[in-house]
Amino acid sequence: MQAIHPHTSTRTNLLSFLCFIILSGEGELSYEGQTYQLGEGDCVFIDCRKAYSHSTSDNLWSLQWCHFYAPFLPAVYEKYKERGGHPVFHPDDLIPFTSLLTDLYNLASSSDYIRDMRINEKLGSLLTLLMEQSWHPESVTVSRKRMELATVKEYLDEHYTEKIMLALKYRWSDPIKQK
């Protein structure tokens, strides 16, 4: 898609996920309370059930994009975020993304009798590629610790008027039997 004039698209509650790559030009994405400046080579992967908007700047962008959905995708997207995946990232190599999206476009316009199965195969490859790009162990550690602390904080907020004690549990193993 080549933008022909500056514009903004705002969406919410779409039952889909969106992946797009900026081939040239610039724009902006607003998603989950954050605003991201987008430029050539950036990749976006978002859950469209949540509100978002994207707009091209005066430096009109050219994109490759795909909306898609399956019942398992919300869980996949959560795993993507748990692993440190971000709504916007800049892959080292765009070719795998652009090749997959081109293949999807070609399949969608084909009359191949098993077109839908081939499209599903390409979407699976796109999800695999996105998951590979999401792996940021340093974010996962922080995220996991933050989640654990949130649970503790929630408990303390609910029970702050009570006497709270920590109990240590010991687990003794059977003594090693000698022959």
Computed structural class: alpha+beta
Written as H for each helix and E for each strand, in order along the chain, the element string is EEEEEEEHEHHH
Unreliable segments (pLDDT under 50, ≥5 consecutive)?
none
Strand order in the largest sheet: 1-6-3-4
The pLDDT mean sits at: 87
Binned strand content: 15-25%
Main pleated-sheet profile: 4 strands, antiparallel
Number of strands: 8
Radius of gyration: 23 Å
Shape designation: globular
Number of helices: 4
Whole-Å distance between the termini? 76 Å
Fraction in helix: 25-40%
Task: Describe it.
- Helix 1 (73-82) runs parallel beside helix 3 (115-134) and helix 2 packs antiparallel against helix 3.
- The longest helix is centred in the C-terminal third of the chain and has 22 residues, at 137-158.
- The protein is globular and about 65 Å long.
- It has a four-stranded antiparallel sheet with strand order 1-6-3-4, with no helix packed on it. A four-stranded antiparallel sheet has the order 7-2-5-8, covered by helices on one side.
- It is α+β, with helices and mostly antiparallel strands.
- 17% of the residues are buried.
- The mean pLDDT is 87.
- It is 37% helix and 24% strand.
- It has helices at 73-82, 95-108, 115-134, 137-158, and strands spanning 8-11, 17-24, 26-31, 34-39, 43-47, 52-56, 62-68, 88-89.
- A hairpin with a 2-residue loop joins strand 3 and strand 4.
- The chain is built from four helices and eight strands; from the N terminus they run E-E-E-E-E-E-E-H-E-H-H-H.
Q: What descriptive keywords fit this protein?
A:
4-stranded antiparallel β-sheet; 4 helices; single chain; globular; alpha+beta; 37% helix; 179 residues
